[in-house]
Write a structure and sequence with these properties.
171 residues, mainly beta, four-stranded mixed β-sheet, 3 helices, 14 strands, 13% helix
Amino acid sequence: MRALQAILFLWTLSSDATTAVIHDIRTMTQNSGVVVQAKIVSQKVTEDARGRIITLSTLRVEDGMKGARTGQELTLYQVGGELNGRVMRLQGASVYRPGEEIMLFAVPHRDQVVSYGLGLGKFNIIQDKVVEDIHDLEVVDRKDGRQFYRAPTPRRYNSLKAFKDEIRKAL
């Protein structure tokens, strides 16, 4: 329960978007139990006891920065997916595909991990550049006691090394 509380995100359904508070990399690193560079090697889509579609992605850790070892395999748990023609999707949740190389901020949940803040923990690695993977989210900005909603701009890093350096400073 404590791990799930550590996700520290606010989300409500607002039209077809999920509303979230985006934290800086330092806060995400400190609040995540797992921070890794990983490759998605496989996926299994199943149904849980409540009839929900569940996607389990197997990740091979390429660089275990926090909470996991290099070479270890992790199982990423997500509610949603496609099974036997049925589609279930949580607005704002990231989509993971076998073959992708990612940086993942996550929290442990039983013997698996869940993404930090629903859809805020995935950063795609593309030719040594890192781009935050934000889907249909709305961001809550707070200023002078008021809340403002906007579509977020994905964070981009010109090199994987620069991104990891920022993470290491927060460890």
